Every structure is written in structure tokens, then in C-alpha cells.
Amino acid sequence: MTRFTDIYLRRVFKTIEKNRLVENSDRIFVALSGGKDSASCLYCVKRFADERNIDCEIKGFYINLDDSPEVREPIKSLVEKLDIELIEIEPPDIRKYRGSRPICSVCGIVKRYLMNKIPREKGATKIATGHNMDDFIVFFLKNLVGKNYSWISNFKPKVESTHPKLLTRIRPLFNVGNREDERFCEEMKIPYTKKHICRFKARECSYNRKRDNWYSTLYEIEKWNKSFRQQMISAIEDVSTLFKKEEDLKECSICGEPSNKEICAYCRIFGDASGGI
Ligand code: SF4
Ligand code: ZN
Fold first, then answer.
1. Above pLDDT 70, what percent of the chain?
2. What DSSP letter does each residue of 254-273 carry, written as one string?
3. 201 lines ligand 1 (CB under 6 A)
4. Which end of the chain, N or C, is more open, meaning fewer C-beta atoms within 10 Å of its C-beta?
5. How far is it, in rounded angstroms, from Cα 253 to Cα 273?
6. What are the residues facing 159 on neighbouring strands?
7. Residue nearest (by alpha carbon) to ligand 1 atom 6
8. Per-residue pLDDT tens digits for 16-50
């Protein structure tokens, strides 16, 4: 361990401990994408459970979007290294979608839907994702500018379930950002893929380009205000408690999954939720 990895790990452990993200008898599925954030998330959750002797099950969960070996291989070597079971699924082919939504929006709906449904059906109590501090600061600013206040209540390390079919979502990396995750993976030799490779698009989508602009802006500010991101995420966590998500969750009349509309977004796209899974 170096001084950096020690500080990083202590910060992530503090987030896990303070928010009770990992507890006895939990069955946690950690969503893996091949990237640095989800790789670090799995590593930290596993290490926390081992070091604190927590009696819980941890599994890797991977939605294979027809990914290349550059994405699949690091995931396989990570779960092997940590001796963790990997649940891998293939979603319906989103390239067949002919509607007007941008492909990234369809992709997001599919991933969110399956990330709740499949782990729950396989006995999970919680789903962990690698969303980090920078992601939440950017989500927050975008939602604020768009006057989309209802989402702000979700910007915290743990979002409790509000429906029997909805898993509790945990974000162990809530207090560390992109650069820290990358450096941690490098120094700890945690396998991850360095490129964002998408099979559905020949080049980086505009969504990712815009997101990268936001990230660079955060790091620009940090050049003259060293603790900007830390201060911002702490303020966001406080503010999130002031908002209440007005969510009237029912069950989708086609697939039975939780939804705030009569038919969930996934079924509106695919018509039949059983297709291809
Ligand atoms: Fe999905 Fe590709 Fe868009 Fe990422 S870039 S959200 S993998 S379609
Ligand atoms: Zn549905």
C-alpha cells in the first residue's frame, strides 16, 4: 500500500461504514462494466467485508452489451483475482430499436431495468454501482440547471428501496472521483479497461463528450480551490435530504416490474419484457 491507496481505501471504508452499505446477511451484486470505477467498487466492497469479517455474499454482475474482449477480459480476471462469482447476462439487442430515443437513452433504460430485475430474482438484497463523486457533482449541476429537482433526493451513498421489487442501491465510491479511482486501480494493479468502448457507436457519443467537458471543468476549478469536489459532494449529500422524491411506484402491467407509469420504459421499448433474456 502507498500513502495514496491507504487514504483512498480509508475514505471508501468510511463511506461504507457510516452509511451501513455492507452489513451482515447482505447479498450484494456489484455491477461491473469493465471500467475503473466498477472495478475499484468491487475490490473495495470485497476488501471491506473481508477485513471487517462481515458475513455477506458478494457477486459480480455484468451486462454484456456484445462487448469486445478488451472489456470482457479485465472483468474475468478481476473476479478470478478476488475469487468472486460472476453473473453475466446478455440483454436484447438494442440495435433493433427503431424508435426516436437516442441509443444511449435506450441503453440506460435497459441497464437500469436489468440491474434491478436480475439481481433481485437471484436473491440480491443490494446492488452496488461504481458511480463516483464526480458523477454525482455533474448529475447534480445538470439537474439543477434543468430545474429537475426531484432526482436530487437520490444523490447520496445509499438509496433505500421504496418498493418490494426495488433493490436498495449503494454507491461506495461516493466520496472519491475519477482520477482517484484510476490511480487506485493502477497502484493496486486492479484490472480494468482504459477505453470506453461502445459496440453500438463507431465513435464516442455526444453524451460522453459533454460529460467529459463537465469533468474537466470540475478539475479546472480544483486548480485554484483544492477541496472543491470534496466540499461540493458534502453539500450535495446534505441537500439531497431536503428533497423528497415524489414517486408513486406501481407494477408495470406487462412485466410486473416497479414503474411510475402503467407500462414501464423497458416494455415501452421492447413490447415484451421476456424477449431475449
Ligand atoms: Fe450505452 Fe454505448 Fe451509449 Fe455507453 S456509449 S450509454 S454503452 S450506447
Ligand atoms: Zn414492464
1. 94
2. TT--EESSSS-HHHHHHSST
3. yes
4. N
5. 11
6. 169
7. 104
8. 999 999 999 999 999 999 999 999 999 999 999 99
Give residue 128's domain range: 3-246
Tell how far the Cα of 103 is from the centroid of ligand 1, in angstroms: 7
Residues 6+ apart with CB under 8 A from 115: 31, 61, 63, 127, 129
pTM for this prediction:
0.93
Residue 20, in any domain of the structure: yes
Whether residue 276 lies inside any domain: the answer is no
Q: Is the pLDDT of residue 203 over 60?
A: no
pLDDT single digits (tens) 73-106? 999 999 999 999 999 999 888 888 878 888 888 8
Per-residue model confidence (pLDDT) at position 95? 81
Query: Which residue has the least CA distance to atom 8 on ligand 1?
Result: 104
Q: Is 107 in the pocket of ligand 1 (CB under 6 A)?
A: yes
144 lines ligand 1 (CB under 6 A): no
CATH classification at residue 32: 3.40.50.620
Other CB atoms within a 10 A radius of the CB of residue 195 amount to 11
Q: Which residue has a Cα nearest atom 5 of ligand 1?
A: 198
Atom index in ligand 1 nearest the CA of residue 208 equals 5
Q: For a substitution probing ligand 1, which of 70, 96, 205, 207 has the most ligand atoms within 8 Å of its CB?
A: 205
The pLDDT confidence band at residue 144, using thresholds 50, 70 and 90, is very high
